[in-house]
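Appendix B. Chain record.
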Amino acid sequence: MTDYPEKTCDIDRLIRHPKLVEAAIAGRKTQQRRDGVYAYPGETFQLEGVTFTVTALERRSLGDMTDADAQAEGYPSLEAYKDLILKMHAGMEWNDSHQVWVHHFQRSA
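Structure tokens predicted for this chain:
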């Protein structure tokens, strides 16, 4: 039994943007932040026929993010990640204390 909440969305919606799908397949993306839970550790999902396994799920604030985290998200830097997120979500403000779910994953063998 885990202490994770109920899923808020289907695992197939975890990574949708074509550039991020490409980054995951290439191994440049190993994390996905979401406001809700899309997958639990041990679950698998496919991107263009490639299988990935969720290895961890943790709750973290946006203010905890580092450049290394942004790179694991598939972006060159934290600043680039922030810029794109704010452009994608019109009217959103970056709030360092905002809590998100970090889905860690890796390509399955």
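Further analysis of this model is presented in Appendix C.
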